[in-house]
Design a protein that fits this description.
single chain; 129 residues; 5 strands
Length: 129
């Protein structure tokens, strides 16, 4: 499994990579633009990501915007529904509006910081891995 970890905080990104490396190969990036670039290049090579963990608060754009653009790239590349990347939004904001925006943008689930290794593993299994 290929995993893209998007988080501008180095410690959070490394923690996520450490937890997820047992599930597959992780690539970590710090910005939304980097995420979009890596995601698009991987799809064009025929080696798309299976999972993206996406922080809601990024320095260059909101995570929900990144997610909308990821879904747009999939649509342009004619990715079938069953072939779309699973997206787990990561946020320190548990308010209803943030969660709703993430769901509307197309996430598969979300996790609230701080989280434990066990909680993350449970979420990964819940979305099908």
């Amino acid at each position: 499994m290929k995993i893209l970890v998007v988080d501008d905080e180095l410690v959070s990104r490394k923690k996520m990579e450490t937890i997820l490396e047992k599930f597959g190969q992780c690539t970590g990036v710090a910005t939304g633009l980097q995420a979009l670039t890596h995601f698009s290049k991987a799809l064009k090579k025929g080696k798309g990501f299976n999972l993206v963990t996406l922080d809601i608060s990024l320095p260059d754009m909101e995570g929900t915007e990144v997610l909308s653009r990821l879904r747009g790239i999939e649509q342009q590349e004619n990715i079938r529904e069953d072939g779309k990347v699973k997206v787990l939004m990561v946020t320190s904001h548990a308010d209803q509006e943030t969660v709703l925006l993430s769901i509307v943008a197309g996430c598969d689930d979300y996790i609230i910081k701080p989280f434990s290794k066990e909680t993350m593993e449970e979420k990964i299994r819940k979305i099908g891995f």
